[in-house]
């Protein structure tokens, strides 16, 4: 019986083992399953078409239009490039300030823009050219006419909408 036990209870004390496990014997550890990280929630005041101010990077201080949130949690934004020189790029939402200004995006198809597409474009720019110009031309992915026309139309739509908003703000 252990000292200090409650009246009427029997609590046994376990004996200490005479033998210890050898140090070199491996024992299994229970490992926790890692949780899959989901994309962070989009801030409530950031909606498609809202104008954001970039806080860091090459384009800090520039106003950009928010297009959509990617699966990685990054924001897809554009200048548009013809208006203020900011291309289509991914931005962490911690590095933007949302404004109350909104731009109507209309029916722009943004399904093809995802992390893989943007990462592929980024890698193409950073890779060094091949040994000869001919090899690089063969390996380079060429856009067909329909893709070029679609991109041109979306850019024109974005620029028109953006210019309308700028005119309203200035007057």
TrEMBL record:
Q: Where is this region: Disordered?
A: 1-42
**UniProtKB keywords:** Ribonucleoprotein, Ribosomal protein
Molecular function terms from GO: RNA binding; structural constituent of ribosome
For this entry, list what GO says about its biological process: cytoplasmic translation; ribosomal large subunit assembly
A single Pfam family it belongs to is: Ribosomal_L6e
| InterPro entries noted in UniProt | 60S_ribosomal_eL6, Rib_uL2_dom2, Ribosomal_eL6_KOW, Translation_prot_SH3-like_sf
Q: Which GO terms describe its cellular component?
A: cytosolic large ribosomal subunit
Biased composition, class Low complexity, residue ranges: 7-17
Q: Which domain of life is it from?
A: Eukaryota
The entry sums up its family as follows: Belongs to the eukaryotic ribosomal protein eL6 family.
Q: What is this protein called in UniProt?
A: 60S ribosomal protein L6
Q: Which organism is it from?
A: Ichthyophthirius multifiliis
């Amino acid at each position: 019986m252990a000292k200090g036990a409650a009246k009427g209870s029997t609590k046994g004390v376990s004996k200490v083992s005479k033998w210890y496990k050898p140090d070199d014997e491996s024992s299994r550890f229970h490992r926790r399953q890692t949780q899959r990280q989901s994309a962070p929630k989009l801030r409530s005041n950031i909606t498609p078409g809202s104008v954001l101010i970039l806080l860091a990077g090459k384009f800090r201080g520039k106003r950009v239009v928010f297009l959509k949130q990617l699966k990685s949690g990054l924001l897809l934004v554009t200048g548009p490039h013809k208006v203020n020189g900011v291309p289509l790029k991914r931005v962490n939402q911690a590095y933007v300030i949302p404004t109350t200004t909104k731009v109507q995006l209309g029916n722009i198809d943004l399904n093809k823009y995802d992390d893989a597409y943007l990462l592929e474009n980024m890698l193409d720019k950073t890779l060094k050219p091949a040994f000869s110009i001919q090899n690089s031309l063969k390996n380079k992915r060429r856009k067909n006419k329909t893709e070029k026309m679609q991109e041109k139309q979306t850019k024109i739509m974005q620029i028109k909408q953006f210019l309308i908003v700028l005119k309203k703000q200035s007057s």
